[in-house]
Write a structure and sequence with these properties.
Elements (H helix, E strand, L loop, with lengths): L14 H52 L2 E11 L3 E9 L4 E7 L6 E4 L6 H9 L6 E10 L2 E9 L5 E7 L5 E6 L1
Antiparallel strand pairs: 1-2, 2-3, 3-4, 5-6, 6-7, 7-8
Length: about 180
């Protein structure tokens, strides 16, 4: 008496053919998984970056129309008590300026770059007091009604630190060690 199997059987293949068939299935599964991971990562990054990109577009347009910038070279996001966006660029007269815009407002403050320090000088001001292993970012904003550069960095213990440096004087205003 012969048994009947209701489950589907894999076709009988020779050993070499069976191994190739299994390898190709495994390879296609790996390719599909990698493709899904790359696509998912890209979609996550794009959706997470969308608010920043929208803010950058809004602030750049405001800076070009109200501050008469002809070119924009940098964009900064500052988060403390209030969020500020800033762009660096060159105005119609050829002067390097910074344009500061509070979040959700169209109020524009135009700052002549020559009246204070730049982001690189703010980093050097922090390096004079602290050892910096890696700078994460610099951003222009306001702290206690005065212009400051925020310098976020990692120290030698890979700890995130923040320093606020006065825009006009280059002196350290606040140090936050997390």
């Amino acid at each position: 008496m012969q048994r009947q199997h209701s489950a589907k059987r894999q076709p009988k293949l020779g050993n070499a053919k069976q191994v190739r068939w299994l390898k190709s299935r495994w390879l296609w599964g790996l390719v599909a998984t990698c493709l899904l991971l790359v696509t998912g990562s890209w979609l996550f990054y794009a959706s997470a970056n969308q608010p920043r990109a929208a803010a950058q577009d809004r602030v750049t347009a405001l800076a070009k129309s109200k501050a008469k910038l002809t070119s924009v070279s940098n964009f900064f996001v500052y988060h403390r008590d209030q969020t500020y966006y800033a762009v660096a660029g060159i105005d119609q007269r050829g002067k390097q300026v910074l344009v500061l815009v509070p979040n959700h407002r169209n109020q524009v403050t135009v700052i002549d770059q020559a009246t204070g320090i730049n982001g690189r000088q703010a980093i050097h001001a922090v390096q004079d007091r602290q050892r910096i292993d890696r700078v994460l970012h610099t951003a222009l904003g306001k702290y206690n009604h005065r212009l400051v550069w925020e310098v976020a960095y990692l120290d030698r213990h890979a700890t995130v630190n923040y320093a606020l440096v006065d825009f006009k004087t280059g002196k350290l205003v606040q140090q936050i060690n997390l």
